[in-house]
Amino acid sequence: MMKTPVIAIFDVGKTNKKLFLFNEQYKIVFERSARFTETVDEDGDPCENLESLRLSVFDSLHEVFRKSEFEIRAINFAAYGASLVYVDGDGKPLTPLYNYLKPYPEALQQKFYETYGGADTIAYTTASPVLGSLNSGMQLYRIKYEKPALFERIHYALHLPQYLSFLVSGRMYSDMTSIGCHTHLWDFTKNDYHEWVRREGVVGKLAAIVAGDEVFPASFPGNGYGVGVGLHDSSAALIPYLISFHEPFVLLSTGTWCISLNPFNHTPLTKAELDADCLCYMHYKGTSVKASRLFAGYEHEQQVKRIAEHFGESSHRYCTIPYDRNMVASLRSKTAPSRAIGGKVSAFVQRSLSDFASYEEAYHRLIMDMVDLQRTSTELVLKGSHVKRIFVDGGFSKNTIYMNLLAAAFPEMEVFAASMAQATAVGAALAIHHAWNRRAMPNDLIELRFYAHTIERDQVK
């Protein structure tokens, strides 16, 4: 029996941990999903169960290697960022996998910024707002000063994607998609580690950087397959778009966070952009990707519950509401213009639901307010580039009210809802295409639906 050549991709999110097998046409031929109960660290803060994750990688590989219909040619990993695994010389973890939402000590944070020129300076040079433990380099700084004996024992601090890769390759490396993403480790103005990383001796705890498309032999038993170095999930999700489209574009990735990614904007971040929650990601080829973030998916979830309770409807009622252009025009004429709160939360949070005659009216106004805020956020990364296309993926790409209003908010742009299965996992596979796939890069990965704008820009308030 002819075996199907495949690549195995581990896509490790905060909630779901997935394994996919893709054939040479990048179609999913097998998948497995797992969820683990969180554990706690020594301070009682919730964190990932690292041992369960490690065992799951090996169990999953044992399972797929037993499937005689597949020939596994390569393995790669994509995982969430800002998470470090501190290992000894044998690769054994020395600590729990600390949660990036773990509160950061104020006094220590103040000491750091006072020592290295102030929060604004660090934010500018490292292309990231001040985010506490989400700046993963700050986690290492904390260990050095709070647990110096532990700091001495650390052989390497590996970001989670690279730790997972190490489990199969036996090699410890760093990659730019993890190091370059809101870590405070990388100086974007010098294209090198930041001065503090060397002065604090942290650089010695970071493994050598290799290219994101590098492939190594496996130490895990198998048949001569290669192992990728692993990628930060947000950077991996961008790869299918960069391969499929050569005209400049912005990818608006929507979910709990709505992130506008512009890989064609290489201008330095300004203080105003940093204050508005802009940052830079790093593309797997080593170039910067300017991004802006909104916690919009979370706001949508909360406000939909509020609307549903007020009108006595199901929280999922919005899924069946069609876009009503006339209702939008009416709402613009009779409700106050959008006044976003601090640039982070839409005006709808402060609106009285008694002002609306129906669930449909309230929901249209919610999306109008959210799109007004999204326009402001996305425009931050459009400046200084010649982008004419916006691709929207994730949850809001399936929301026709949101998509029609977004097209109206950007009448000078071509706005598309983009659809593809498992963009993060496909991106991790495409990054090492050369190592396992004998076919040409596919040109049909992404389905697009065009939304023409139907409301003039000067009507969008």
Automatic annotation (TrEMBL):
<feature type="domain" description="Carbohydrate kinase FGGY C-terminal">
    <location>
        <begin position="247"/>
        <end position="434"/>
    </location>
</feature>
<dbReference type="GO" id="GO:0016301">
    <property type="term" value="F:kinase activity"/>
</dbReference>
<feature type="domain" description="Carbohydrate kinase FGGY N-terminal">
    <location>
        <begin position="7"/>
        <end position="195"/>
    </location>
</feature>
<dbReference type="Pfam" id="PF21546">
    <property type="entry name" value="FGGY_C_2"/>
</dbReference>
<protein>
    <submittedName>
        <fullName>FGGY-family carbohydrate kinase</fullName>
        <ecNumber>2.7.1.-</ecNumber>
    </submittedName>
</protein>
<dbReference type="InterPro" id="IPR018484">
    <property type="entry name" value="FGGY_N"/>
</dbReference>
<dbReference type="Pfam" id="PF00370">
    <property type="entry name" value="FGGY_N"/>
</dbReference>
<keyword id="KW-0418">Kinase</keyword>
<dbReference type="InterPro" id="IPR043129">
    <property type="entry name" value="ATPase_NBD"/>
</dbReference>
<comment type="similarity">
    <text>Belongs to the FGGY kinase family.</text>
</comment>
<keyword id="KW-0808">Transferase</keyword>
<dbReference type="InterPro" id="IPR049382">
    <property type="entry name" value="FGGY_C_2"/>
</dbReference>
